[in-house]
Specification:
Length: 498
């Protein structure tokens, strides 16, 4: 008898999952401990770190609200979220608590879904429970004025829906997953690959083909209008209907990693990119970055270093008619089409060099992701910029904290190694499970769920390696999925079955 069949028999046909969660005394204790322990942990954490954690992206989200912008370097979804929270309170402490409670609720839904669908024994369930609810990583995540906590919650709920879609192939689940993808996309453009993952989850579900097609198309019906809207709003400010201004910078950055190893024929460059190529040639000739230089800012060297081609070119050619954040967006957007065309041309004409110098570097970064935000507090500063002071009604730009600014780096140094070890262990479990026909046939629901998990992890890996910098906070949901399925597979392979 399958785990879900046992649960249906035990708790009846009416709202069986909710009954399983709330009528089971052990599960009620799980909920109680999660909230009480979570709030105690966060309160103690806020004594150590009374103020939120900011990076440059944080101010972009705040500026979007302060200047009533309809478009900025990052999607406007998180800006709308903090604006909604601001209606209730301008306190930064309130925002942090809201973000952490959202994480707790998400983790409980995911945790009980795993227990309900796959019958994870208590000792394995406790490992997952401790990771989710007693993990300092999520305290730091909630304390950041960044989209990460909300994006993590939406993404994990979406993955949980993929698991439920196999057991309950209903139209409501199809619609819900599409809404989640739409919400994730307006918060972070990384969600652009989520509809692809959904295709695999829908195909694995028991839907009839008309419903499957609806499920595959529906997310794009939500994404495309937002893309069009963003393009039109960008055109109003920069003159070019771009979807992601930052995307042009990222593509050029990625391509420039290989520039020292290629010989570019400047006569074949796209129109308008010749001067940028001259800047690149001069930079690599005079001050070529070392491997150590590139390692310090994995995947973002040419975006972040003020002297590294892109920002000097911006200083010469960026224009701004408005002060503050709108002017900055105009400046970045005015050069983005050139960067986009130049980066794509280099990648198209030198794919092997790109794979060697950028993608291979990102492969290594993927398995041992850079701590980045987890390495230090508030980008090493004991003050915040004016937008944060204004938005949160702070009395001063100065902030206080009890530990050192680098303290969290000492705590989290083990997590990249843990992520690498988890990938290795998970791969071993997958190979053993997939090559054992008897085990596969005896655990078909686990096999289907594993295929969905593999689709998510493999597509995330490909997207991370090709398109984005790889840092630890971007790999939190994959880390949760890896741990969860490593535990499920370990239990199915090495524990006696009923």
């Amino acid at each position: 008898m399958t785990t879900i069949a046992k649960n249906l028999n035990a708790y009846g046909a009416s709202s069986p999952f909710l009954q399983y969660v709330f009528k089971n005394s052990i599960n009620r204790k799980y909920i109680l401990v999660a909230f009480i322990a979570g709030l105690i942990q966060l309160t103690l954490f806020k004594i150590l770190y009374p103020y939120p954690d900011f990076i440059s992206d944080s101010y972009s989200y705040i500026d979007t609200n302060l200047y009533n912008m309809n478009v900025n370097l990052w999607p406007i979804g998180y800006s709308k979220f903090i604006a909604f929270i601001h209606l209730f309170s301008s306190s930064h402490v309130f925002l942090v608590y809201v973000q952490y409670i959202i994480l707790i609720v998400t983790f409980l839904y995911f945790f009980f879904s795993i227990l309900y669908l796959y019958g994870l024994p208590r000792r394995y369930a406790l490992i997952l429970y401790i990771f989710l609810f007693f993990n300092p990583m999520f305290l730091v995540l909630a304390n950041c004025v960044l989209s990460d906590a909300i994006f993590c919650s939406i993404s994990l709920i979406l993955f949980t829906q993929y698991l439920w879609m196999y057991y309950k192939p209903t139209l409501s689940n199809i619609v819900f997953q599409a809404l989640l993808i739409g919400a994730a996309f307006v918060i972070r453009y990384t969600a652009i690959y989520y509809p692809i993952v959904s295709v695999f989850a829908i195909l694995l579900g028991g839907y009839k083909w008309p419903i499957k097609l609806i499920g595959m198309v529906l997310p794009w019906l939500l994404i495309f209008p937002f893309i069009w809207y963003t393009q039109q709003e960008t055109k109003k400010l920069t003159g070019t209907a771009e979807f992601s201004v930052f995307g042009g910078w990222q593509i050029a950055n990625n391509a420039l990693y290989m520039y020292g190893s290629i010989d570019v024929d400047s006569t074949k460059l796209p129109p308008g990119t010749l001067e940028l190529d001259r800047e690149a040639r001069a930079f690599w000739k005079k001050t070529p970055p070392t491997a150590e230089d590139l390692a310090e800012l994995p995947g973002t060297f040419f975006i972040k270093v003020p002297t590294a081609i892109l920002k000097p070119y911006l200083s010469k050619h960026g224009w701004a008619n408005l002060p503050g954040a709108p002017g900055g967006f105009q400046a970045w957007g005015s050069v983005s089409p050139i960067y986009n065309a130049y980066g794509k041309w280099l990648i198209k004409h030198y794919p092997l060099e790109f794979a060697r110098h950028y993608m291979w570097l990102n492969v290594k970064n993927y398995f041992i992701p850079h701590l980045e935000k987890f390495g230090s507090y508030n980008i090493g500063m004991r003050e915040v910029w004016d937008p944060a002071k204004i938005w949160f009604n702070m009395k001063s730009n100065q902030i206080t904290l009890i530990p050192s600014i680098q303290f969290q780096g000492y705590i989290f140094f083990i997590f990249p190694l843990f992520f690498m070890a988890l990938n290795i262990f998970f791969a071993g479990c997958v190979i053993f499970f997939l090559t054992n026909k008897k085990l596969r046939q005896a655990n078909k629901p686990v096999f289907i769920a594993l295929l969905a998990a593999l689709a998510f992890l493999i597509i995330n890996f490909g997207f991370s390696v090709f398109a984005t910098p790889v840092v630890l906070r971007y790999q939190i949901v994959p880390m949760i999925v890896l741990l969860t399925f490593a535990l499920i597979l370990t239990e199915k392979q090495f524990e006696p079955q009923d």
